[in-house]
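Lecture 7, part B: from sequences to assemblies.

Below are the input chains for today's worked example.
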Amino acid sequence: MPADRGRPEDLKEACVTEALAIIAATGLETLSLREVARRLSVSHQAPYRHFPSRDHILSAVVARAFDHFSAYLDSRQQVPDNPAQDLRGMGLAYLSYADEHPLQYRLMFATPLPNPADHPGMMQSARHAFTLLEQGVARMRATQGQPCTEELVTLDALFIWAALHGLAGIRGGCAITTLRLSSDILGQAPAHLLGRIGQAMGNPCGAKADG
Amino acid sequence: MPADRGRPEDLKEACVTEALAIIAATGLETLSLREVARRLSVSHQAPYRHFPSRDHILSAVVARAFDHFSAYLDSRQQVPDNPAQDLRGMGLAYLSYADEHPLQYRLMFATPLPNPADHPGMMQSARHAFTLLEQGVARMRATQGQPCTEELVTLDALFIWAALHGLAGIRGGCAITTLRLSSDILGQAPAHLLGRIGQAMGNPCGAKADG
DNA sequence: GGGCCGCAGTAGACACCGTCAACTACACCG
DNA sequence: CGGTGTAGTTGACGGTGTCTACTGCGGCCC
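Predicted structure of the full complex, as structure tokens:
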């Protein structure tokens, strides 16, 4: 049964899918409930029956992006016997995701939601990804034999997340145009950044990354 | 002559000021050309005489934020005889700015402008800040006596910028609500991050930062 | 000085948007 | 059979960006 054109069976589901398609095609700003309804061959108020407001449909799209992101990080092949390498792989996966799915990435981290507290599913997905990172740091610290507070793990995870998040944002957003960086530099940036993070964490594995 | 209420002398200038005030008061989404005009006691088309579109007035506001940011970084007290310390001071200044002027910071780095290439002044201000950082890195490398390509300086500057930018974004945006981080951790984060950056750059000055 | 032109600002209209309220169609249940 | 709740429709309202046509008004050239 083709649910694409002609009134879809599950309208709520179809709205989210169609909204994402619109955003992908013409940008976040031009997303409108009415356009979604139009594409679904449905009255302009039908989506309103399933979502209290435009923000709620948008947050549903964002939540989906977070799930996609979490699944991506989870499905990455792990290296349990080498936590340092594993952490590096996770960082690489983070940057790869931002590179391969810039739309989803921007939806997650650059979408202005009025009050994120309204949408618990979204927050949970985000928190999940951060917890993965914390666990990676903790495992690495354990093999390094360093004494390590929970607080210190969180701070290090935050440092790593910040660096990854920052680079992803720069690469995806304003790098070439605003900062006028060559795509050559931008291509080297992930490896270099991960190398520097490795050094910062006292990990020799990353030290040789930039020659 | 009070140019605030009653038709302002320089309408173009007044539009930018008033737009910023509106954004500060009620958020970016609710900014409208008509509201700007209303507050300026002017017809809804008057601002349109000075700005081709709503995006252009917004980009003027963003450009102003970039100038503010650049001035802030420039006015920071420098430590010419200790480049490492100087670099750290610059990082601190960066994070301080994001902390003290979250609105301007978000305007600069989290505002969706359709095509930034249209607004050269904006780009120039951003590039200026990045160049400051590159020079800081280059000076530090020089005192370290390390051989250093121009490319490597840029990559390191990019690493530092990414970490700072990432942390600022996390702190200003989604930290407590989405990532559920305590404000205690968040308060420690800048010093810790700068310390880790110091370590990554092979600089002992930052190594003791997190105890 | 008088006509002319360009510029700043005004007024009205258009299409679009989110949202509210009232309505219809229909399945289900007593 | 009537009642009830749910999904969807229709129409309206106020707000928005933008287009077009209009009014003043100061400077400029003849």
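Note for the exam: Confidence is low (pLDDT under 50) at residues 1-5, 205-211 of chain B. Keep this in mind when comparing with the next example.
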